Amino acid sequence: MKKRILTIITTVLFLSASAQTQRLSPRPEEVISLNGTWTFQEQYPIQVPGEWVMQGFTVNEGETARYTRALPVPASWKGQRIKLRFDAVSSHALVKVNGIKVGEHEGGFVPFEMDITDALNGRTDTLTVEVQALTISDYLACTSQYAVHTVGGLIRKVSMFALPAVNLADVAINTTFDPQYKNATLHISTETANESATPAVTSLRFTLKDATGKTVQQFNSVPEAGIAPGGCLQKEYHLPVKAPQQWNPEHPYLYQLQVELLQNGKTIFVTHYKTGFRQVAVKGNELLVNGKPVKMRGVNRHDVHPLTGRSITPALSRQDALLFRDANCNYIRTSHYPPSEEFLDAADELGLFVESEAALTWVQHGASPIWKLWNYKDEKFLPYMIQANADNIHAGRNHPSVIIWSLGNESLWSPLWEKVLAFVKKTDPSRPTTFHDQCWGGYNNAHSKADIAVYHYPDINGPAYAAKSVRPVLFGEYAHLSCYNRRELATDPGIRSAYNAPLVTFYDSIYHYKGCLGGAIWSGIDDIFHLPGGQIVGYGPWGPIDAWRRPKPEYAGVKKAYSPVKITGMRERNGYIELTIQNRYDFTSLKAVKISANGQLLSSSIPAGSTGTLRIPKEKDGPVHLTFTDPRGFICAEEQLGEAPPVVSPKANYTLSMTENNGAIFIQQGPYTYTISKTKGIITSLRKNTDTLLRQGPVFCVAPANSDDGGKPNVAGETYQNNISPLKNYPLYTIFSSGIQASQSPAGIRVDADLTYTAGKGKQSYLFTPSGELITTYEVNYQGTDSIPYQYGLLMQLPPTFETLSWVRKGEFSSYNPDDIGRNSGEAHLNAKQLNAVEEFGVMPKGPWKDDANELGSNDFRSTKKFIWHASLSDKTGNTLQVLSDSKQHSRCWWQDAAIQWLIADYSNNGSEPFYGSPHSDGKINIKNKTLKGTMTLSLP
Question: pTM for the full model?
Fold first, then answer.
């Protein structure tokens, strides 16, 4: 084993010096895509880009996958230098043209380039790429371990282009401002290469154009002394630009920089860059962008798709950026490797800060078991660590959206990381650095020295603690979405809606404390892979967006918590509503935000980072629909103000009567008949004429908390799998009633029972009223073993025909998307579906997330609706049961054992996700030997 590892390490050894000279040429307008169908292992068709595993192929560790295709080199390119660019190969590539080696590269998720000119024959040229996965860079990045399958292949685009023999080898762009952040300097570093056989005299022309195409600056360099054959000329240029538009996420203004290479006064090459004027600095415990302190409102993001794995399309990359921007994110951490060029282009254009992370993960961390064998301080790893960071910088440095370099993820600081940090700071001193460890406490804290301190998974006290730091503190991962309580989530998707209110509380605290820079929610997108053959693997559903890119319930919470407009107070005056509003934009006055109240446009001049008031004319009774539209065109905040609690219409009086025999008490309430077992003291049926409306209940029920992750063997929680089934919940088993009494009064007929359960004792009473209500009250001394509940309350069993749920509730937010399971009112349908796995395999869902279903019903139907005013279940013939409440109870229904189960819970928490503490975990209780009480009102039409 040790000999094999040493062989891997010494096979492709890159010195830190070479890491600084890896070439990525500026590209011309004409670029030929080599994407499409290649030949795999000399006989099979395979799609590039793509993973081989996701296309049904197996290549084991140490084995080589061979990709081949013809090279369509145009005849017009004769006499030029022909370059190949691979945007990512996982994880080692050896490239040959016509059997001649032209280069090799170690490391996935980063672009690299090779010159193939001298290997071409000009007739039938063939490109071969020999790929190995699970090489040293894969282990250092935990690439395949993390994806729970071998990530191998040409996973991002492949292209070919031609350059003149004298060409631009490199262009690096940076911008700075004067002390007033008014005028700027455009810094351009260039490298001109002479790949011809004769000396060359060159010059450069730079043309800067604004977004309308107007030229705002042009500069011509003087011709330089001859560049010798095989030589290079490095130069720096500093172009003053008067009062440019600044780039920031709220105003992502982009200029176009045209760079021309001239030889003997004639333009021989032209390339273009989109660039933005922005400057980043750390000052004390704040991060400044263009001189202003910012708050980072973000998520972590992986490249992922269930059917293509870590290889995704440019369109999907842009869709990710758009979805997160529209959720009010201003920041993406590219966990745990550099992003694609297309994602960075979208971030530049749409307005997102990017923390670009080098592909290094869990070095000397328990999640990566290889470090039980390897020595994390061994210098032989240093070249790979530097190479990973060098490739990251080279790929992203010309993007204004990239404002932070992350050296690596969740690793232990060491002298090697000190050298990596020094390399990064020397290579790009214009951006601050992070290192993702723990900046306080005893775990994974070896006192790293990056510019920005990092802490993962703080509780609600974290922001206040961060404020004490001398460095800005970034919560690189926080507010972990429920994921590992897998069976609980399969049972009740409402746990996802319960995530939202605590997130708002958490981010309010982050925003309050100066030294807390912000954070990236873990995570952004579900990490799920449908492997050919039927296996489902990954870390699972931990994103506010599912892997098919549909918003999930947590998306509403992210958008609300990160909203740049926060209403902190409301007072009703004569003729208007006065709102106290906090403007949480970093750069934007509310003057630039479109404000609409019931269609009437309003205005406000509250500056960025300030609090003020907004008056809304109130011309009539009823709610006010208020929207704030971001200057980039999407609604960033939405409220429904002044909506009154629903009023339930009074029912006509029903005649009440009671009969009994030795076995049961029978209550007649108008057309409805109840049967109550004298032996057990519980209702065993409710009928309307010949229709059965209720089979049993209400009976006291405890739904235990459950953190079962599915039980799959793992080293770091990667337990998502096919075999994750939902839980069943049952009422407390009633053994007998030791006393049951019935009485009648003007209020109605009352039945009281003393009950003995297998797990406790209690009392339950039923009041049947003339208005058609059944009011059930319980008092239970609970002695069961499931002492930590998820929910408890009264459970009813209805016939399976009661397939339609409707509700009105007092939601955590006043406004929801119509497809959100957490919406304040709505109708949901059972639509139960028997699955052979935790989710349907290999099929892209057609509808919204709420309509996905398992054997318990649709996500919408079976999810807890918290804080109900009323909820009802109906069948297709019009039979309806309705529960009336005071907005303090919770409704959950599901299909189980050939019946509809309906729980009205007096207690419900946010689920059992182990990675998220307070405020999400607040409110959990132990009910062992506790007396639990509650009341439920069932109303009949």
Answer: 0.95
